[in-house]
Amino acid sequence: MFGEYAQVASYFGQNEAVEGDGNMSYPPSYLLPTFNAANPWSNEHNSKHGTHGDFIIIAEFSEIEGPKPLLTIPSDGGHGFDHNAFSVKIMAVDHQTSTTGFSISEDTQVILTDSGEFEVCAFVHHFALYDHEARGFVRPFCMAYVTKEERKLVNFYEEFSSQFRKVAQFFKYGNRMCFVKDLERHSKDLEYTKGVLIGRFNKPMPEQGCTEEAIYKDLQHIQSSLAEIRDILVILRPLLNDKRLESRFHTLESRAWRESNKKDKLDSLSLQEQWFTERGDQPASKYGSFNDAPDNPLHLFEKIHAYSPKLVEMKKKKKFDRTLRSLHELCSWGAKEGMKKMRLIYEHFKREAMILELEREETSLLDPPTSVLSCGQCITHNFLSGLSLRPADCPALSFPADLLQRWSSIDTLEGSFGSFKSVVSESSLTSAQSNDSFMLASEGFCDDDTLFSQPSDVEKSSPSVVRTDSNLSGSSSMTESDTMPSVYESCSNSPIKTPDKTMNDDITLDNVETSSLEQTSDIPEDNSVITTESEITITTCNSESQNTSESDSKLTDSSVDSIPDRGQMINSSVDSIPDTGQMINGVYIDPPSSDKNILRQYSEPDDTTDTTPSSEGTRLTRKPRGGIYTVGDLLFNLRYDSPGIGVLQVLNKYNNIQHIIYSILTGRLVLVVGQAKHEMEVIKLVTALSLFLPNHRRKHHAVVEWSSKPFRLTDLPRIKIAGVCRTEKRSIESVVKKYCSIIDVDKKVIIAPTYQGTLIHSIISKKKCFKIDADFIAFTHCWFMEIAAKAFIFYHSFCLGSTNIISHHSSVACHKQQYCNSVKGFITKLGIHEGDSPIIEYFAEIIKLLQIDQTSLPIDEGFKVSPVTLSYQSCQMFRC
Amino acid sequence: MSVLQRLWTSSSKDKQKSDKQLIPDVEDPADGQPYNPYTEILILQHHKDIVRLILPIDDFRCATAGDDSKVVIWDIQDGCSLHVLSGHDHPITCMIIHGEIILTASSDKTIRVWDIFNGQCLHILKEHCSSVKSLVSIPESTLFVSGGRDICLWNENGQLLKTLQRTDTEEDICIMISINHNRIVTAADKQLVVFSVTPVDDDEDKDVNSEMSLIKSLPPHREVIHSLIKVSKSCFASGSIDGMIVLWTAHNLLPAKYFNTITNYQGADKLYPYSIQCMFCLQEQYLFAAIGSGFGIFDVSASKDGLICRKISAHFSKILNIGMTRDGSYMLTSSEDGSIRLWGKPPSSDPEINEKLNNSNIPMEKFTRLSSEELKRLNGENCIEPELLGEFIAHSGAVQTFVDYDKEGIVSCGADGLVIVWKNSELQKVKRNRMVAGILSNHDGIV
After folding, report:
1. B353: chain A residues, CB-CB within 8 Å
2. Do A600 and A398 touch, CB atoms closer than 8 A?
């Protein structure tokens, strides 16, 4: 706020006379000194908990006031933190290239580490917005993710970079739409004024005291202003070509219209967020609300009010007394979307770096999804981790799509390998492989299955094509592969750059090709596709660029001119990937899907409820993928009903619980029975015990906390743990009783097969070592990983190995005996107690069933029935 | 009133007690059922009412039908329902397979013809004027016969070729079997009647010339006939609820032998405790019969009464179906008490005998673990006694019937509307191992 000293002085100068009347009048709060709180992170308590106090701050370099904070996410983010001083710090980067006219400036991203005053680290993204009232039309802004953990920023740089880039894209695009609109309006004003002035010029009126000279001067001024506006529009208009964003804004606006028509009293659509300035208290803050004046920035698309031009005051100087427009006024819906996105970013990254890293590591275990073993809703192991099951893309194999949703960084890490593989496997090998992999298919199906003939097939394979392109280059610390870089982005990231860029956005040809491919396929008639090569070659022969002869503007101009070259370029890029390119063109020309991001279409099919065409936001929310959490994630947000809550209490309260855990780990149904008055106790038991449930995905409903309906046989394949209310009538079918283990809360007994192994004791014996559930849950998950490792060996060596060649004995009894003996022999070799071998077997069986389930041919009618293993093992009654 | 009631109930209780003294208790299976190989089930849900019929189509498919007037075709390997054949609006009473079509008879007075492969209804035969209760196809021809109040002859295109009217006093035909010489034996109440069908071969309009005529009415049983089976080429057997089994010669249609003749057959409260519900024949020689809640095995070729096995109380209530599985390794009985019981001999401690008998191809040897010579020496005095090896409990109502699918398991259906496939989990595990290995070896990720 260095720029304010002069203002303070002038303010008091002006008000000297007024001050005399004794009224305590204060200067506007933006002129008051801010209260300097102590550094919130200097005390010991907070520094221990690094997650405490991460926040996002948006600041602007106001031409009146200098660097000033605008808002934080969350609203109390960095409470007690000196936002002003920090804004000065982060805005103290002159990222603007000195320009002589209008230019398109680039964004920069930088990590700032402050070891002195603030002891924080910040990821700062600088960007500039346009405002026709501002000096040079440019308003510099920056947004910064501020955290104590440097490690977080460094390790997740790519994610930060790409996510903030998307936010900036929202802001800038919305801003550009507003700016263009403003300019158009302004040029209308000027034209109108010009007309008036010319009229005056023709019949001068002496009483007005206007000399011809003055009018002539004004006209000249108008003329140059018009020329300038024209130039700017020439540069900007071609950049407004992101149909996807536009349609998204349009949806928002039309939704707002509907809302405003419905209830005109409540003004819920105001753009105003909380600000540091006191403008929020003024009635003028209604500016930016939807029901406002027709020239409201929110009316981006509606054209109901014809614009009536105004007379422009020509002698106007730059006015520094009026407040500049807010971020939301500048960006319209873009700000709304950007803020939404930013909140998601905050929600995601506010967690500890450790958790984020855990999540990233474990997320890689989700692929391939068919071999994921999970316990208590947490991923435990992947039996085929890292193996590419690419031919699985053939139409017969359906994956739960949400399992494929992955982080962009992981894409990059594995990208080069995976993409190569995908190219090979998909373009050349698939036909051969698909035939092979249809071992279950009928002959007819095999023959009919031509490569890429079915739409679903294409949709599946195309994202990997895109990824291929962007990753073959080996560049891309900016992973744009997951969200299509819009054309503007690729333009601004073009190699022509000022050398002081801190951002490592060396997007290479391939990335741009990707985008061009995208664009051609999306909007075939839209010719404004820019490719880097054409830019470089055309800049020299560009004639139209005028006083604003900056390399950047040339670049954009050229892009308008160089349609033929671009066409070639596109062609060549298509040619370079012969099969897939054609395919993309063939498919994505159809308009309804053109607005959507291809990858997202594939990876988030259940987003249809959201009316926005593609909600990138969901990428950052922490919904469990495929119904499975990562351990880090689960531990970070344990809720009252997370599996395993209360487990310590249960273990300490109930004896002989190992028999029940054994039942759970071998897939035997466990029923917790109690009268209605014991409902809470039953639910607690069920929640605690569900920690041990293997293959437990959230959406599978294998756990029923409390049910007053009688438990029936048909529930057996689905439900694994259930709380059952004891009623006067029979609450469990007598048939089911034979195949389940029961904890009777009323009688304090457990009826279950006897556990004779050792594994479970090793975990129960640790119950005294842990004070809180979270620790014990974490320990249990480690323990699961050990068991899963044994099951892994069993799966690979025994189940997939040759040890199970069993002669076709006519006698089923002999067969059974032989199989059990060979299992026993193998398990003993693994160092597993015989009593634990059913656990290992069950774990392997889960994976086998998953794989068979998800790789078999989809059948139109009916669905598969999951088999239920019946154990005739006799149960015993234990006191608990 | 209450006193009288109490008196009456107490007296009936006493009566029951005295009955129980005669009848041995129903045994329970051994703890843990170590010799029961059926340890995995698939629960197939679609029917809304009692499922009464299971029709095996091939090694992996079966059709089930019941009182909800629907037929469902299942793949019993993974439990998929392949087709649902709906169209009847009354319970289905009989279902047979005839070449590549499925025929269903229903109480709605129609017969429907279905395509086995796509489940389409090909024809609806409406010529019956009362509910159709049984169907039988004529071997080595395209003809089939349906019975109810009348008896009709059809060809596979659904053309009615011949109708034989029966008198109103006669009961509806419930069971039909075909025996040699294109003859058909029908059972209606106590009465057995034999008809003859003469398909005309190598003729342009042969169907039109096909004839059906009554040959003979056999001497009636004392009570209602519930079971009628073909024993061999030369004979067939019928059983009625009085416990009587009659063996008839196929050629001259005379009774050859009577088994299980019981004088006081009605039992207490007219429950017919000796009723013959179901029979099957092994090696054309051994006749297995469900007798009340027990079962018996008769040697048809023996000179005397031929009883080689008698289990009086095998179940808690009446046995509805009896059959063999695994080429004679086990015998199964399904009952109204909701269970299926597995009978046989546990593997002996001597592995050599096991090996020898396991390699035997003769089902009866496998089942009894006796050699053929030893079997011949059996008579009424020294009986074989199959042991209870396991009990399948999953149905919550009477188990109507079951069908053996050898290695794929057993399909059973019950009054609870469920169809359950019973499988051997070890065999399934090995099968899954192979499937997974197959899936993975087809992926390039596996080196």
Report:
1. none
2. no
